[in-house]
């Protein structure tokens, strides 16, 4: 709700926060910070520096940070991306980085998110949080936005979500890509779009924080399924059926858990992200699933990839959440049986083929 040119946001304890839409994201002194140092963090840092004179960057690994400072390259991820290190304030102290910035962009893989989040000792009440994490907080089975709202009292009006369809590798190559920026308030989403738009990035504003966060979790599960089926020599005809049914599961889950009459799941943040994650050569979740289908154990696949496949962790979270809602999700359930009950993939997928339409 706009009041006198401001958006009024109510949080726990009835405290009021106001974001001045005329100048908050236009402030010359507004500072952005990247929290995380993987491939997605590297790609988004590249985009931020298209418009920002300086950013702060939390890099937990001192060796990686030294390499970034000295060479302007991330030594482990997207090494082709070149940074002007003089424009970046690096630190391995997460609280130092938080103190230095107004807008915090979190890109830590969900499996390691709590390892870093528990280090946060600063108040986040005056910060704007952007989450680009395509996963959930394990055990608690809550999204990253929910975590910051519940544990750090950040109102949803000060939280935004970045979603795809967008692979970090293609951002690094400056291939045309689309990002969806979702916020509770469309005015905020539009302002954030300006921060990330460039010649090869088009942005779409949205207000469905819940939907795009859960869609990002679900599409990773279905990409694992696509990889398993590909490894088992199922062809393109079956893959089309698998992904169509995956989309129906996603749509039904979102509607059952958080109905929104304005949500259009046929848009790119939902269907598009599902398609690219299931089909792309850059999809780590599809790669992970393919390894599982070839007979790798979960641990062996994780070690060989040396990257986090969010779909593995998301599978358990969605399975636990769905105990309450009982949405018909045979594909997600099949992945749970394969990944957590260690059932034989060929047998489980053969059973699954009898349930799809």
Can you tell me about this structure?
This protein is of the alpha/beta class and 357 residues long. The protein has two domains: 2-207, NAD(P)-binding Rossmann-like Domain (Rossmann fold); 211-353, N-(1-d-carboxylethyl)-l-norvaline Dehydrogenase, domain 2, CATH 1.10.1040. It has helices at 39-48, 62-71, 94-100, 110-117, 144-152, 168-172, 186-196, 209-231, 236-257, 268-279, 284-293, 298-305, 310-325, 330-339, 345-353, and strands at 2-3, 6-10, 16-20, 32-35, 55-58, 88-91, 103-106, 128-131, 136-137, 142-143, 159-163, 177-183, 201-206. The chain has an eight-stranded mixed β-sheet, with helices on both faces. It has a three-stranded antiparallel β-sheet with strand order 1-2-3, with no helix packed on it. Strands 9-10 form a two-stranded antiparallel ribbon. It is globular and about 60 Å long.
């Amino acid at each position: 709700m706009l009041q006198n040119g401001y958006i009024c946001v109510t949080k726990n304890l009835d405290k009021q926060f106001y974001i001045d839409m005329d100048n908050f994201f236009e402030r010359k002194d507004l500072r952005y910070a990247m929290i995380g140092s993987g491939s997605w963090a590297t790609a988004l840092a590249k985009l931020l520096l298209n418009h920002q004179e300086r950013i702060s960057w939390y890099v937990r690994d001192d060796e990686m940070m030294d390499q970034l400072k000295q060479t302007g390259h991330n030594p482990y991820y997207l090494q082709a991306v070149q940074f002007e290190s003089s424009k970046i304030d690096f630190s391995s102290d997460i609280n130092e980085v938080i103190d230095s910035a107004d807008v915090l962009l979190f890109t830590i893989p969900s499996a390691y998110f709590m390892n870093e989040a528990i280090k946060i000792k600063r108040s986040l009440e005056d910060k704007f949080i952007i989450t680009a994490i395509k996963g959930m907080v394990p055990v608690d089975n809550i999204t990253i936005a929910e975590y910051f709202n519940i544990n750090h009292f950040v109102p949803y009006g000060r939280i935004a979500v970045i979603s795809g369809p967008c692979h970090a590798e293609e951002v690094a190559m400056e291939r045309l890509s689309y990002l969806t920026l979702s916020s509770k308030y469309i005015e905020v989403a539009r302002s954030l779009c300006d921060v990330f738009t460039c010649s090869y990035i088009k942005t779409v504003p949205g207000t469905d924080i819940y939907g795009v966060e859960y869609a990002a979790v679900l599409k990773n599960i279905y990409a694992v399924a696509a990889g398993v089926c590909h490894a088992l020599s199922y062809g393109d005809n079956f893959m089309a059926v698998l992904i169509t049914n995956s989309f129906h599961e996603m749509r039904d889950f979102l509607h059952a858990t958080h109905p929104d009459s304005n949500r259009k799941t046929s848009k790119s943040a939902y269907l598009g992200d599902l398609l690219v994650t299931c089909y792309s050569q850059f999809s780590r979740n599809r790669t992970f699933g393919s390894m599982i289908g070839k007979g790798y154990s979960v641990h062996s696949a994780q070690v060989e990839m040396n990257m986090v496949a969010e779909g593995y962790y998301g599978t358990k979270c969605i399975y636990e959440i769905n105990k309450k809602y009982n949405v018909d999700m045979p594909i997600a359930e099949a992945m749970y049986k394969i990944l957590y009950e260690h059932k034989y993939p060929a047998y489980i997928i053969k059973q699954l083929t009898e349930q799809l339409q």
